[in-house]
Specification:
CATH class of the largest domain: Mainly Alpha
CATH architecture of the largest domain: Up-down Bundle
Family: Belongs to the acyl-CoA dehydrogenase family.
Protein name: Acyl-CoA dehydrogenase family protein
Number of helices: 10
Structural class: alpha+beta
Radius of gyration: 21 Å
EC number: 1.-.-.-
CATH topology of the largest domain: Butyryl-CoA Dehydrogenase, subunit A, domain 3
Low-confidence stretches: none
Strand content: 5-15%
Order of helices and strands: HHHHHEEEEEEEEHHHHH
Bound molecules: flavin-adenine dinucleotide
Largest sheet: 8 strands, mixed
CATH superfamily of the largest domain: Butyryl-CoA Dehydrogenase, subunit A, domain 3
Keywords: FAD, Flavoprotein, Oxidoreductase
Number of domains: 3
Cofactor: FAD
Distance between the termini: 40 Å
């Protein structure tokens, strides 16, 4: 497929997921969040229809597609007002890393469940004292006979309470300092010494964030995914899909907000014509639409490069897509809220909470500034200040 225009299959997937999203919609998610529940019904139905595992290998119950298809699913659910944030981590990062680097037994143990929605996996790399600088992470794995002992702290890790396990990024004792040589471990939710504390976030989302403590968590040898010496390649095999999926999340949210604003601007009349007739209202909405479309184009390019196996080019494109989508989402939400005037801030119209939510894609999984740093150094060859 070409990244510029979508195939008929992709269009069909888009409209099928949009129809599912419409059946649930924003009201469903609002209810789930108010009840402090999880979007289990939508998660299971999307899984049953093959949408959650669309990127996973067919041999393990997946759809045999790629991140291009998975990003369509997340974008359309988001555009319907009911995004599933855990898609960014469970099938996109963890599913991909296990499919690409896992042992046969890890694949058999995890992939069918991730695909059919009966199992979920969270992903933890961020640490309190490292943040954007992943090279500073200190979560350390030490060998003890046939087992590993994992010790460290993580922060802002999404969905650990509902995930059967968390894929934790650490480093081995031998590679404790210097440039990051990451190694990845599957840590079951109830492992001894694995504690979580919920962080009180100002986010109207079903998925919660947690601070994690790992205190000599004993793991079997097969908890290690991939090679302990494989380095950054394995990690980025998961992080590039994460960036593409965060772009999809942001574009979906931006489209949802923009559509609410356009509907409102067509109807709301306080002078002679609906407010949408005023260019001061219409143009920023048109701009938001253009910027979301442009971001999607970059997202499609990144997904295409990733799915065709070009990890290096995909890395640059995924960063740019995440940047463009995060910015487009923040602007679209801001303009949508403004278009509704006072109603933009009411619970009834439900847009105000998106002001906070839309900032997530600007910060996570890699901040706007870190992407600008990446493009400055890697693409433009400018010197580094840090
Ligand atoms: C809702 C949410 C969900 C998340 N889910 C997960 C998850 O599931 N798993 C996970 O591992 N992590 C998760 N994260 C963490 C997220 O990836 C981090 O918040 C992000 O990487 C930024 O790290 P930090 O918060 O420590 O910010 P910091 O690194 O402290 O940065 C703070 C500010 O300084 C700026 N800054 C830092 N260094 C530079 C520099 N060199 N040049 C210019 N500016 C700089 C940053 O851009 C940012 O604006 C989540 C975060 C949020 C908000």
């Amino acid at each position: 497929m070409s990244p510029v225009t979508e195939t008929e299959e992709h269009k069909a997937l888009r409209s099928a997921v949009a129809a599912l999203g419409k059946r649930y919609g924003r009201d469903y998610l609002t209810r789930v969040v108010a009840e402090e529940a999880h979007p289990d019904e939508l998660w299971s139905e999307a899984a049953k229809l093959g949408y959650l595992g669309v990127n996973l290998p067919e041999a393990y119950g997946g759809g045999g597609g790629g991140i291009a298809e998975l990003s369509i699913v997340l974008e359309e659910l988001g555009a319907a007002g009911c995004p599933l944030l855990m898609m960014v981590v469970s099938p996109a990062i963890c599913g991909t890393v296990i499919a690409r680097f896992g042992t046969e037994s890890q694949k058999r143990q995890w992939l069918p469940g991730l695909a059919d929605g009966t199992r979920t996996m969270a992903f933890g790399i961020t640490e309190p004292d490292a943040g954007s600088n992943s090279h500073r992470i200190t979560t350390t794995a030490r060998r003890d006979g046939d087992t590993w002992l994992l010790t460290g702290r993580k922060v802002f890790i999404s969905g650990v309470d509902i995930a059967d396990a968390t894929l934790i990024v650490g480093r081995t004792e031998d590679a404790r300092t210097g440039s990051l040589k990451p190694c990845l471990f599957i840590v079951p939710r109830d492992a001894d010494g694995f504690e979580r504390r919920r962080i009180d976030m100002e986010l109207h989302g079903a998925e919660k964030q947690f601070e994690l403590t790992l205190d000599d968590v004993r793991l079997p040898a097969e908890a290690l995914v991939g090679d302990e010496d494989a380095g950054l390649l394995q990690l980025f095999a998961g992080l590039n899909p994460e960036r593409v999926m965060t772009a999809a999340f942001a574009i979906g949210m931006g489209r949802y907000a923009l559509n609410r604003a356009v509907e409102y601007a067509r109807e709301r009349t306080v002078w002679k014509a609906p407010i949408g007739a005023h260019q001061a209202v219409a143009h920023p909405l048109a701009q938001a639409h253009i910027e979301l479309e442009l971001a999607r184009l970059m997202m499609q390019k990144a997904a295409f490069l990733y799915d065709s196996g070009d990890d290096v080019a995909a890395g640059e494109a995924a960063n740019m897509a995440k940047y463009a989508a995060g910015e487009a989402c923040v602007k679209a939400v801001d303009q949508a809220v403004h278009t509704l005037g006072g109603n933009g801030l009411t619970r009834e119209f439900g847009l105000a909470s998106l002001i906070t939510a839309s900032r997530v894609a600007r910060i996570a999984p890699v901040s706007r500034e870190m992407i600008l740093n990446y493009v400055s150094h890697q693409t433009l060859g400018l010197p580094k200040s840090y």
